[in-house]
Amino acid sequence: MARREVLFPPTRSANKVLWFLYAGNVTATEAGYKVMAASAFPFHNNTPTPSPLLSMCVSPHCIRAPYAAGLIRAIRMLESKWMQLCDDIEYGSLSSEITEPSMRVAVQELLGAPQPELATRIREICMRNNRRGILCRLWPKLCYIACVSTGSMEQYFSLIKHYAGDNLPLLGGDYFASECPIGINMDRSRPPATTSFVIIPSAAYFEFLPFELGASPNVQETVDISGVEVGKMYEVVVTTYRGLYRYRLNDVVKVVGFYNSSPRVEFITRAPKGDSEVFTERDLISAMTTLGLMIGDGKGGEIVEFAGYLDPNSDQEHVIIFVELDKDCLFLQRENVDKSIGQLSRCCQSLEACLGSVYKVKRAKGNLGLLELSIVKPGSFEGLARMAIKSGAPANQYKPAKILRTCNFVNLLKENVILSSASELNI
Questions:
Q1: Which end of the chain has less neighbouring CB within 10 Å, N or C?
Q2: Considering the domain boundaries, does residue 178 fall inside one?
Q3: What span, in angstroms and rounded, lies between the C-alpha atoms of 424 and 410?
Q4: Residues 36 and 130 in one domain
Q5: What's the mean per-residue pLDDT of the chain?
Q6: pLDDT tier for residue 109 given thresholds of 50, 70 and 90
């Protein structure tokens, strides 16, 4: 926080923060201690003062979210519900779509009296087809946006920059895990691809397990902070004050230098869970970058979300990649069915080249069938998020899984497939 305030010092006229936080449920241990996500804690004390901000009467100094995915969820909600929002603000009454009694009371109190002038201004902004810079138009005193945008969050970086506009900085976050803090981002203005973190030596006892992309996992000796080498990759292992002993975080980092005597690392990918995994998150993100270039039509052909799955239940084990596209994508229009199926098949051949050496070796040996690319209905991954949160995932820290391992999640996406390289359109 201190480093952010050096870059953008708050003033009396610009000291408000708009946080997008999702509280989630609070449970209790047998001893009576409350259990919640750390990022949900502000909801359970007296520090937040949301009313002036959420009424849009005061432009915030900055917009923040724990993860880029959470910020994108909020922006997409605005895109789909802005007309309803404007009606509620104009008339000072709440839509019947909100049915939770406590939520209705809270939001009705927030709305207050009718505000037709504010509603008109928001309508004029949201009615424009071009959403580039919409955040600056809604809140003209914004100085920056801050959220974690490295790792699996990197896919959202360019989209947030689109909504923010060319002149609004997007600052990265620090490197924290549920188990303990790990690293500090010393240069928050860097893009995700070049962001590095300085390991916090007092946060835990850190060990580093040598790692090589594409190699079979072998049991090796770990090294401590003083034993890492610049240019090499490691999986992070921690022993924490709260009792975790030599716990593998499954995070793979690359040492790129030192800050004083602490290693400076870049996040590379999530480590495979075992020998059965044939591709990594990094492989999948690379494949989706390629797919975005192949299907981009300039008229809503953006990839909204994606996830991969190794399907062992078909005639031949093979990888399925589920992809959600923008609802206005020409790729999904019924009159383009034959062309779309053919294009999906051609895409599969190119995407296989992105899936790493383990995948390629197994394909060459005939142990894996042809990659299947499945397009799902718009909103399918939002349904996946709701299912995950209902199953106990912290709402505020939910990160869309890139490699699916839960049958319920896979079945939900399979039920929503509308176009596949191995099937026909089913709209």
A1: N
A2: no
A3: 19
A4: yes
A5: 83
A6: confident
All residues at 6 or more sequence positions from 121 whose CB lies less than 8 Å from its CB, including other chains:
none
What amino acid occupies position 150?
A: T
Q: Name 234's bridge partners.
A: 210, 253
Residues β-bridged to residue 95: none
pLDDT digits (tens, 9 = 90+) for 242-283: 889 999 999 999 999 999 999 999 999 888 877 678 888 888
Is residue 240 a contact partner of residue 247, using CB atoms and an 8 Å limit? yes
As given in the structure block, the two tokens for residue 73 are: 């969820």
Domain match, 287 and 312 both:
yes
Angle at 96 between CA 92 and CA 101, to 5 degrees: 90
Distance, CA of 105 to CA of 122 (rounded, Å): 23
Which DSSP category does 230 fall into? T
Q: Is-contact 43 37, C-beta < 8 A?
A: no
Is 21 part of a structural domain of the chain? yes
Residue range of the domain that includes 358: 281-420
* 112 has a pLDDT exceeding 70: yes
C-alpha to C-alpha distance for 346 and 352, rounded to whole angstroms: 11
116 and 226 assigned to the same domain: no
Number of domains in the chain: 3
Confidence of residue 411 (pLDDT cuts 50, 70, 90): very high
Query: Which segments of 134-187 does DSSP mark as H helices, in order?
Result: 134-138, 157-164
How many residues appear in the chain? Answer: 427
Cα–Cα distance, 195 to 171 (Å, whole number)? 10
Residue type, 348: C
Same domain, yes or no: 91 and 141: yes
Q: Please check whether residues 300 and 345 belong to one and the same domain.
A: yes
The H-assigned helical ranges of 265-333 are: 281-295
Shared-domain flag, residues 219 and 134: no
Token pair listed for 243: 């009792």
The residue to which tokens 């069915």 are assigned: 337
Nearest of 62, 73, 29, 22 to residue 43 by alpha carbon: 22
276 lies in some domain? no
pLDDT, mean of residues 105-110: 84
Place of tokens 């895409």: 347
Over residues 295-354, the pLDDT tens digits come to 765 444 678 899 999 998 877 889 999 999 887 776 666 656 566 667 777 788 888 888
Query: Are 11 and 155 within one domain?
Result: yes
- Tell me which residue of 325, 320, 318 sits closest to 300, measured CA to CA: 325
Q: In the prediction, which pLDDT does 267 show?
A: 93
pLDDT for residue 47 is more than 70? no
pLDDT score recorded for residue 424: 44
90 and 160 together in one domain: yes
